[in-house]
């Protein structure tokens, strides 16, 4: 039975995205932000301004019986250990993307969550954008026929303003340049359509920016059940977001009007065989909040979180192959989800 009390959560990491998430949670009736933690004391002011308890110790958060869930917004290489620690402490976990950087870490995170019987959610809010939900529905119901190919682009130039020692520009935290920043969202939606990937060919170049980790990424993903995804992610061009799927009976394309940080709406264009394309403008919707609330509802015993855990792991398996391919220049095989987790 659903618990009608809001889910008490703590936020872990009060940087750029953690602050955006904190304000979303504070606007929700389904979650209550009870405390925040960041290793950087400078985050205290943000918490204090919002009347939030603040500390620099993650262990203190895990020991707090008031906290039923954690929202992890920390650098990528820390996600797995923090998910495992939170699950071991009996806390539900919402983790920002990527869930993990390797398939074995994703399996470790999943095993901890399953052993603890807690909810796991990932910060792939694109799945909660109304036009993307409609596109996925058209795929699921067969309205587009058999999905044949995805073509997608998620690019932005926010990182150009970062100091060169920022963790998000490092090869350790962000292998394959733009892959963990934006490419991962496109990969996640491609997995939602096609399932597990079979192989990945990725190429990263540094063409015209100070981003030594690479500013331009092209990825070709081939899937086990057939189909390709052609993904483009650039960190040295102004914002653009586009996700298109081509099927044997029709196609659908979502174009974003702005970054998910401040949604301005979308244009959804669909075209069925024998008809002219139809474009519909869709108003802004708080997809980040809807993702967080889907997590809260699942944690409170309501509807299950809508992203299957195998897809969370499949996304990391394909991500890991993209990292390898960007290094080797070869087409790299993808670790099978079955070899990692029992289903
Ligand atoms: N879903 C999205 O659209 C989206 C958008 C932006 C960022 N993100 C994700 O959010 C996460 C954070 O990215 P960001 O851009 O906010 O980075 P950031 O550097 O601005 O913030 C990270 C924060 O974590 C803190 N931190 C580091 N180690 C910590 C620890 N052990 N415990 C507590 N706090 C710790 C840092 O001091 C910093 O304040 C990343 O996973 C990133 O990929 C997601």
Short description:
The protein is built from nine helices and 15 strands. The protein has 343 residues and is of the alpha/beta class. The site of nicotinamide-adenine-dinucleotide has 23 residues, from helix 1.
Which sheet architecture does the biggest sheet show?
Answer: 9 strands, mixed
The oligomerization state is single chain
Mean pLDDT: 97
The name of the CATH architecture of the largest domain is: 2-Layer Sandwich
CATH superfamily of the largest domain: Dihydrodipicolinate Reductase, domain 2
Write the layout of secondary structure elements.
Elements (H helix, E strand, L loop, with lengths): L6 E6 L3 H11 L4 E7 L6 H6 L3 E3 L2 H6 L5 E4 L6 H10 L3 E4 L7 H14 L3 E3 L7 H11 L6 E9 L27 H12 L2 E9 L10 E8 L4 E7 L5 E8 L2 E7 L9 E7 L5 E5 L4 H13 L9 H20 L3 E2 L10
Parallel strand pairs: 1-2, 1-4, 2-3, 4-5, 5-6, 7-10
Antiparallel strand pairs: 7-11, 8-9, 8-15, 9-10, 11-12, 12-13, 13-14
Helix pairs in contact: 4-5, 5-9, 7-9
Can you walk through the features of this model?
It is a single chain. The chain has nine helices and 15 strands. By secondary structure, it is of the alpha/beta class. It has two domains: 119 residues, Rossmann fold; 188 residues, Dihydrodipicolinate Reductase, domain 2 (2-Layer Sandwich), CATH 3.30.360.10. It starts with 6 loop residues before the first strand and ends in a 10-residue tail after the last strand. Bound molecules: nicotinamide-adenine-dinucleotide. The site of nicotinamide-adenine-dinucleotide has 23 residues, from α1.
């Amino acid at each position: 039975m659903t618990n009608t009390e809001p889910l008490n959560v703590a936020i872990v990491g009060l940087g750029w995205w953690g602050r955006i998430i904190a304000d979303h949670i504070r606007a929700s009736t389904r979650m209550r932000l009870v405390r925040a933690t960041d290793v950087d004391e400078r985050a205290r002011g943000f918490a204090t301004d919002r009347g939030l308890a603040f500390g620099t110790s993650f262990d203190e958060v895990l020991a707090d019986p008031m906290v039923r869930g954690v929202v992890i917004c920390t650098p990528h290489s820390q996600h797995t250990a923090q998910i495992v620690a939170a699950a071991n402490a009996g806390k539900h976990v919402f983790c920002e993307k990527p869930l993990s950087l390797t398939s074995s870490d994703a399996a470790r995170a999943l095993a901890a969550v399953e052993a603890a019987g807690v909810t796991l959610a990932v910060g792939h809010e694109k799945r909660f954008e109304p036009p993307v939900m409609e596109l996925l529905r058209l795929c699921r119901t067969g309205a587009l026929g058999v999905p044949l190919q995805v073509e997608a682009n998620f690019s932005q130039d926010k990182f150009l303003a970062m100091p060169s020692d920022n963790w998000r520009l490092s090869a350790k935290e962000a292998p394959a340049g733009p892959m963990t920043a934006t490419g991962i969202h496109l990969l996640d939606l491609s997995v939602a359509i096609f399932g597990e990937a079979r192989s990945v060919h990725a190429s990263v170049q540094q063409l015209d920016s100070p981003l030594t980790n690479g500013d331009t990424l092209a990825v070709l993903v081939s899937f086990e059940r057939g189909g390709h995804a052609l993904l483009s992610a650039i960190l040295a061009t102004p914002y653009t977001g586009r996700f298109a799927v081509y099927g044997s009976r029709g196609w659908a394309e979502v174009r974003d009007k702005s970054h998910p940080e401040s949604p301005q709406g979308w244009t959804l264009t669909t075209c069925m065989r024998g008809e002219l394309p139809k474009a519909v403008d869709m108003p802004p919707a708080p997809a980040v909040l809807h993702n967080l609330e889907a997590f809260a509802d699942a944690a409170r015993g309501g509807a299950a979180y809508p992203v299957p855990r195998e897809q969370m792991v499949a996304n990391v398996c394909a991500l890991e192959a993209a990292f390898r391919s960007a290094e080797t220049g070869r087409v790299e095989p993808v670790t099978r989800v079955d070899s990692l987790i029992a289903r």
